[in-house]
């Protein structure tokens, strides 16, 4: 598999940082010293913002990382995140498989941005930058099917075979029409597209091996397949530094002010802070804050800490087992009976025991995982751009005036930032910390419903932070901006108008206010969103 790498040797990386620090006195291109910039220029606060706005912008360490003397550890973590894991039994990147989703972080997060746009046709998981994952569900319950993982694996390390054959999966882009006929009053048009995914049951390995779903979904192809794109990994440490109390206060505000048509997801808030159920908030570790579905809490147990294990199936000391399927045993049962697997691996019992073991050797060392987490928590967010431009300033004013700032809350102030780890992983070095920083992520850290055509699973989706997303195409070379959860929006206008596609959307009112703006003001809002 061809792997395109963007890695810079550490010596060159340090030289580049020094050079950027030297030229950073003109970050806005207008000759104004950095000290004269407004506070919202520092999207990640003084400790979390980078002024490197090149294609490498999402790969920069925060000032806090450098000040803590963690630059070398950050670079080592970056090296692990960038390169492919391999199926070798020894070596720094060994342990890939036996089945896996992707071979590296870079595959899903090109240059550490969100995944690139999905073209029409065959879903090709081998494409570098294809960070759009498959979500296979029971449409009646919205639950994941038991015979695949929540993030289904698409590859197998010989002699094991992929649970899904991605070459049999196709993506078709369809067009929806809103109440305005996809046209503004002044005649400017826009398109609203959404994906439909087709996956025959012959793409499912266990089905071909004789497995039959008790609910009949697999036999009848009655399951549903959706797409969920990855988000940028930069700035996650800053979100982790927001206090639980402040996030809970945001829930309380939105639960009582009556502005949301759909209220709050009762799995997280039902007259108060929910501490039971599948997606429960843990009273010890606070409200969930990461992933669209808010399935993850503190960053040491969040999406990145999880993905470096379950995307690659590389074991570590706190996870000495494999990520297989929702049931935990279906793939193991049918792979163990596969004559071709037996011929290369061993007996049926040996295969089953290996796949389901909870005490496998750790393939990633504690030090390596620590390096990955320093990198993950140490990624900076790019400074806002064009902060003195009149159109951007007008757009900033309108963003608040029409109500976009309700869900895309502009700013938070971090707390003391005490790094927490629900897994009690033996961290061997300090993590970058961001205490008492005013940051500008443009998210309320809460889920809402947009009620779009072929919507996200369950319809509930965390408000995606907007910081840095205007630099996605620069960082990745993507043909489009790839906005919203499944890359359906190719630009800001499409993303905004999807927010108001349905009258039941929580964002219907602000979308209609945007629709009423003249073209100059609409362009100003777009300029602002692309600048933050």
Key words describing this protein structure:
9% strand; 29% helix; alpha+beta; single chain; disordered N terminus; 532 residues; three-stranded antiparallel sheet
Summarize the structure.
The protein has helices at 10-23, 45-48, 63-67, 71-82, 105-108, 205-208, 217-220, 236-240, 244-256, 303-310, 330-336, 339-345, 348-356, 366-377, 390-401, 472-476, 492-499, 508-516, 519-531, and strands at residues 49-50, 99-100, 121-122, 132-137, 155-156, 170-176, 192-198, 224-229, 381-382, 412-413, 438-439, 447-449, 460-462. It is an alpha+beta fold.
Question: What do you see in this structure?
Answer:
There is one protein chain. The chain has about 525 residues and is of the alpha+beta class. The chain has one domain (about 1-130, about 165-200, about 230-320, about 360-530). About 30% of the residues lie in helices and about 10% in strands. It contains 19 helices and 13 strands. It has helices at about 10-25, 45-50, 65, 70-80, 105-110, 205-210, 215-220, 235-240, 245-255, 305-310, 330-335, 340-345, 350-355, 365-375, 390-400, 470-475, 490-500, 510-515, 520-530; strands at about 50, 100, 120, 130-135, 155, 170-175, 190-200, 225-230, 380, 410-415, 440, 445-450, 460. The strands form six sheets. Strands 3-6-7 form a three-stranded antiparallel β-sheet. A two-stranded parallel ribbon has the order 1-9. Helix 4 packs across helix 14 (about 365-375) and helix 15 (about 390-400) packs across helix 19.
